[in-house]
Design brief:
Strand content of chain A: 25-35%
Order of helices and strands of chain A: EEHEEEEEEEEHEEEE
Distance between the termini of chain B: 21 Å
Number of helices of chain A: 2
Strand content of chain B: 25-35%
Structural class of chain A: mainly beta
Order of helices and strands of chain B: HEEEEEEEEEEEE
Number of strands of chain B: 12
Largest sheet of chain B: 5 strands, mixed
Helix content of chain A: under 10%
Number of strands of chain A: 14
CATH topology of chain B: Protocatechuate 3,4-Dioxygenase, subunit A
Mean pLDDT of chain A: 96
CATH architecture of chain A: Sandwich
Helix content of chain B: under 10%
Radius of gyration of chain B: 16 Å
CATH class of chain B: Mainly Beta
Oligomer: heterodimer
CATH architecture of chain B: Sandwich
Radius of gyration of chain A: 19 Å
CATH topology of chain A: Protocatechuate 3,4-Dioxygenase, subunit A
Chain lengths: 232, 176
């Protein structure tokens, strides 16, 4: 069994990112201590369809009726850094409705809730690492980070992969969003190419005629290193 | 050249919408039960009411689960308005470490919250555990800070461990 690759410098955000104001009081002051990967880091929880019985991959079917907004298909592949598919891994997503409002008690944005859109979805990747959700394009919404701050349209993604070391939570954005250059969360990493990989692509192939636009978003989780655990 | 890994982003304030489906604060399985309670406190020691903790652990025999049946080894709990969280589980056994060492019983922990762009990872060790002295990971931590990741046993027998983001007794986090 091998360790996982370390993240490339600059490819991940640091815990302290001053433009994102709430990181100020919520980051450790000491740098994290680098440790070798052991059995504890290279193993991780696994999930089955039974875990997803109270959810589905079609976010437009969680209410009594059809939600308002632009119906979209969001799909892609979950791969490791060598391009191998990550099979049967859990993908959890959540998002605002078309008006930019989350169905959450602390969201006080003055925009309407949609009773037909709770805004969550869950699925497992297939044997080729593919996932697919049907949902509504989320709206942009204001937040209090700085004067006239607006979050670009985004969908939150949570993934486990095969190991504790591969766990990641991220956000998917949409092509051409004019808010992206001004968003401190999107801009948290030094690597511009890394940021751009968070932007989905419009995709004719998954667009359904008369039904929904398709957006493609591939996710790459850490891959295995060449170093076997025993040698560390 | 390896494909670059996807960049992490914060869970934000509304993660409960998507992540509450799999809240697991009671891990059922054979072994010695324990309850771990604590709070997540920010730089000013104010409670963090919107944090999510996940744990990953071996079973009582020191084996990590390889399938999603039987003992799952996975827990997920959100903090409440006081920043408090609670897990009940079974005490894990010792697990193999690097170069023929043995790791003392421990929980792997991920911490997510609004304000954190990438998760924090740490471990929780058990009090009164002789194997802590020779644990290869605990020994990478400066001696003065080791106590921050060893739970304390309270008078009621419950284990207590706080996640302190800053301050003199700031919790040790690991770069994995």
């Amino acid at each position: 069994m091998n360790a996982y690759r370390r993240y490339q410098p600059g490819s991940q955000p640091s815990h302290n990112h001053p433009p994102y104001v709430s990181s100020q009081d919520r980051h450790p002051s000491h740098p994290p201590i680098v440790i070798p990967h052991t059995l504890s880091e290279v193993t991780g929880p696994q999930f089955t369809l039974d875990d997803l019985r109270n959810s589905s991959s079609d976010l437009t079917k969680h209410g009594a009726g059809e939600p308002l907004g632009e119906r979209i298909v969001v799909s892609g592949k979950v791969l490791d850094q060598d391009g191998n598919p990550i099979r049967r891994t859990l993908v959890e997503i959540w998002q605002a409705n078309a008006a930019g409002r989350y169905m959450h008690k602390t969201d006080r944005h003055n925009a309407p809730l949609d009773p037909n859109f709770p805004g969550f979805g869950h699925t497992l990747t297939d044997d080729e690492g593919r996932y697919r959700f049907v949902t509504i394009k989320p709206g942009a919404y204001p937040w209090r980070n700085h004067h006239n701050a607006w979050r670009p349209q985004h969908i939150h993604f949570s993934l486990f992969g095969p190991a504790f070391a591969t766990r990641i939570v991220t956000q998917m954005y949409f092509p051409g969003d004019p808010l992206l250059p001004f968003d401190p969360i999107y801009n948290c990493t030094a690597d511009e190419k890394g940021r751009k990989r968070l932007i989905s692509c419009f995709d004719w192939e998954t667009t359904i005629p008369d039904q929904a636009l398709g957006f493609r978003f591939d996710i790459t989780l850490r891959g295995r290193d060449a170093t076997p655990l025993e040698e560390m | 050249m390896p494909i670059p890994a996807t960049t992490s982003q914060t869970v934000g304030p509304y993660f409960s919408i998507g992540l509450n489906l799999l809240l697991v604060s009671n891990l059922a399985g054979p072994g010695e039960r324990f309850t771990l309670e604590g709070r997540v406190l920010d730089a000013h020691r104010k409670p963090v009411p919107d944090a999510l903790l996940e744990i990953w652990q071996a079973n009582a025999a020191g084996q990590y689960p390889q399938a999603a049946d039987g003992f799952r080894g996975f827990g997920r709990a959100a903090t409440d308005k006081d920043g408090a969280f609670c897990f009940t589980s079974i005490r894990p056994g010792a697990v193999p470490g690097p170069k023929d060492t043995t790791q003392a019983p421990h929980l792997e922990v991920s911490v997510f919250m609004r304000g954190l762009l990438i998760r924090l990872t740490t471990r929780v060790y058990f009090p009164d555990e002789p194997a802590n002295a020779t644990d290869p990971i605990l020994n990478l931590v400066p001696a003065a800070r080791r106590e921050t990741i060893i739970a304390k046993r309270t008078d009621s027998g419950v284990l207590h461990w706080d996640v302190l983001l800053q301050g003199d007794d700031e919790t040790v986090f690991f770069d994995i």
